[in-house]
Amino acid sequence: MKNAIGREIPERIGDRALAPFAGAFATTHAGPKAARHQKTAPRVDDKLLPSIDAAIEACGLSDGMTISFHHSFRDGDRLINQVLDACASRGIKDLRLFPTALFPVHEPVIGHIENGTVSRIEGSMNGPVGAFVSQGGKLAEPAVLRSHGARWRAVEAGNVEIDVAFIAAPQADRYGNANGIRGKTPCGTISFCAVDAQYARKTVLVTNDLAPYPVHPMEIQQGWADVVVEVDEIGDPGSIVSGTLQLTKSPTRLRIARLTAEAVKASGCLVDGFSFQGGAGGISLAVTKFLGDEMERAGIVGSFGMGGGTKLLVDLLHRGLIRTILEGQAFDLDAIASLREDAGHVLIDPGFYANYDSRGCATYMLDAAFLGATEVDLDFNVNVNTHSDGLLLHGIGGHQDVAAGAAMTMITVPTLRGRIPVIVDQVTTVTTPGEVVDVIVTERGIAVNPRRDDLKERFAAAGLPVRPLEDLRHEAEKQVRPIARPVFGDEVVALIEWRDGTVIDAVRKVEGWT
Amino acid sequence: MKNAIGREIPERIGDRALAPFAGAFATTHAGPKAARHQKTAPRVDDKLLPSIDAAIEACGLSDGMTISFHHSFRDGDRLINQVLDACASRGIKDLRLFPTALFPVHEPVIGHIENGTVSRIEGSMNGPVGAFVSQGGKLAEPAVLRSHGARWRAVEAGNVEIDVAFIAAPQADRYGNANGIRGKTPCGTISFCAVDAQYARKTVLVTNDLAPYPVHPMEIQQGWADVVVEVDEIGDPGSIVSGTLQLTKSPTRLRIARLTAEAVKASGCLVDGFSFQGGAGGISLAVTKFLGDEMERAGIVGSFGMGGGTKLLVDLLHRGLIRTILEGQAFDLDAIASLREDAGHVLIDPGFYANYDSRGCATYMLDAAFLGATEVDLDFNVNVNTHSDGLLLHGIGGHQDVAAGAAMTMITVPTLRGRIPVIVDQVTTVTTPGEVVDVIVTERGIAVNPRRDDLKERFAAAGLPVRPLEDLRHEAEKQVRPIARPVFGDEVVALIEWRDGTVIDAVRKVEGWT
């Protein structure tokens, strides 16, 4: 069947009937949420078990169950591989892996798919596992990708039932309180898994720093945790920081950042109380810096910035240019230190951040957001999941949530990457529909969604280079080098859910390239 | 029917079959919790309505519904009366009032019972409303009293479904984030209502200090709130502090406090990592002070203290004698200021504090607790709800939760109050069963529950005056003045629930006195 933006999606996957995307805010849910498990705690003061294996045993983890993880260590995570190895050693089969995201460090997951330990994945896949899956990698069902907010929603809605949540906890006490901002190897917030901890049949905290009761802040609470395990290693904070966390030095990207900051100013929203989502990526970081300097010049104090938190965002807080950082995910060590030290740096969870089915989420309060893309198309649709080679190499992150929420959503992209075009007729995969994208800023000019003539006028009045998206595309085309095009098979290897649980696109198997 | 401690309780109330108390930890619950309401938020950034009346209208509040409130302003609350007046003006009838607690300031509730606005109450009643109810005051069903933890549990279990939660919020933003520690009239934590906010069909924040987004800490979150209302007055923090928050000057009470502190020391638990619940009441405050001094002398650092928080508890934190205060309820302005300023002063909610059906609660981590009583009996049962005149004048608070949780539960009482005996054959009402009471400390000596011979030996070895409870009672009896005894009718006016939802006692109508 076709959804509201014309993408062909399957009607069902196994027993599950799929709901087609109907529009960014078209779906309304009512009725009860999923019920959490009631459990009477025995009066014990210690939940410590000696090993991950003992925890697996105690939780009755067995074939076909669903296990979940957070990704706050990003490419430095050491937990998922340990748990899967332990499951494989026990001969457990057909697990559904439900991480918030996988990274290159999780390449061993491929082996666990091949040996039958893992047969389904619901979660973002950055790098090799995604590449494997998109080349037909043997999963029993298509993978399901969700935004941060959508994953939270899906658990609360009962779309995904978690049997055992394994939570890497940089600091935990024996009774089950934990956070990610303290301990030997802090990774920032671990609240991505707060909903898992509340809904899972069993919740296991795995820590490398068992601290005296009561560990606080309690991102994970004692009332949710069944088991605590101490291990040598849960993750390497050094690998949280990736290449995308450096301020860009590229003249093209600096120009995009400069234009973006000027567009924000021209839009009229850069006044006291201004709020924005920056995030990682060289351009976003540069925009954050430029806006901060502009706010300082103009004497403007913003209400809040959202991250992932970075040194640059923390710098705005320290300079008094924003009152608050709402932090769902720390992207560097400065942000983690600030979470410990700055009262205005506030831990939030993905439900607070972006849940479509709450009574209001933080992304709806954003004045402006600067987001990336692998591709954008002439309908302003954005792809962040696949590359032009068709391979599924990235997760959604908060892209959909922020784009849908911010009053002005700006996609900041070069028109070319390695002479491959970024602006295309039709994106390979729709992650975020053009309906919620307002502006595309490139080094060749700024394209404004026809829905937003108000912005177009303001930008033009400010002398900014407003240009039709087609023109930007056409101009870039001249420098494009010939590239191999993917040949897609019929098999659906992954579903891209919209934040309301409908399916916005399907990713098909890459059979080869021409 | 009779429950496990021989108290006669009704088999049912209306449609509801009552479960008899079976033992402090005899009941185990499994299966699903109640489901929360799913709701898709529209993308708005402002939930402000102009008045409480407008909120009542918007929430569709009508006859027979359940409305809830917190009691953090205690006798200074200004919200409950305002809301009930507004409901009465609209002609709404038969409301079930579900406050965490009522105080003397809520005497107008009596009028609203008489005029039919309120027909049921589930919640603690301190003072006139309780006296009215226990003299047969016209409720359609017996009132239900629960401990802090039991109320939270009851909501999560679906025992009480809330239609509209009205939450007095000392500081709130227009989007529904709120806390009790900031604003013009801070009252301490408002997390008593966090479970209400999450489960209610509609949640209304009523604030007298509308602050810019994002208000934090978010004790109440935007994702839970439907409506925000700004009013002139929600409560008077000056009335949070009651007479029971003064350090006692009575030689009798000072002796009890001194004996209690000595008994703690003799018990062997006063070592590094020591944890205790102090709370209000002149004796508890004095014990807190004496223990702090002893810890300082001995170079001991405790892990945590629980309150309600007071100046004396904060003082221990500031002196480095305890690492943490876990704060469910602030009892004075120093505690509120400390919540804003001290990183080691941690806001918790009643679920974290005391939920029987969580996977572990904070009271289970207590080494020692010093609690009050109106009466104790020879089975070590404790009454905190009724007086010897039979009138229901007090709530349960955290009494049951702490007594059941602490490794050593000490009841600190004088043997006489105004020549009325405190140690009796059988308490008028059982709030907390002798099963979870270890020690009764009086000015005449220390009685130890026969279950705890280990403590008895340690106390005796330390030269403390350990005496049979009967002897203490007998000795005090000589000074008792003759008092009028209540004549109880058959009508049950209130049920005392145990923290697991079973009924531990029934309070019967006082027909008169002889």
CATH-derived topology of the largest domain in chain A: Glutaconate Coenzyme A-transferase
User: What share of the residues of chain A does DSSP label as strand, in percent?
Assistant: 15-25%
Main pleated-sheet profile of chain A: 8 strands, mixed
Chains forming the largest contact:
A-B, 62 and 62 residues
How is the largest sheet of chain A built, in terms of strand order?
18-17-16-15-19-22-26-27
What gyration radius of chain A follows from the Cα positions, in whole Å?
A: 22 Å
- Cα end-to-end separation of chain A: 27 Å
Question: Which descriptor suits the 3D outline of chain A?
Answer: globular
* Averaged pLDDT of chain A: 95
Oligomer: homodimer
Unreliable stretches of chain A: none
What is the CATH domain class of the largest domain in chain A? Alpha Beta
Task: Bin the helical content of chain A.
Answer: 25-40%
Q: What is the domain total for the residues of chain A?
A: 2
In total, the number of strands of chain A is 29
CATH superfamily grouping of the largest domain in chain A: Glutaconate Coenzyme A-transferase
Number of helices of chain A: 14
CATH architecture of the largest domain in chain A: 3-Layer(aba) Sandwich
Class from helix and strand fractions of chain A = alpha/beta
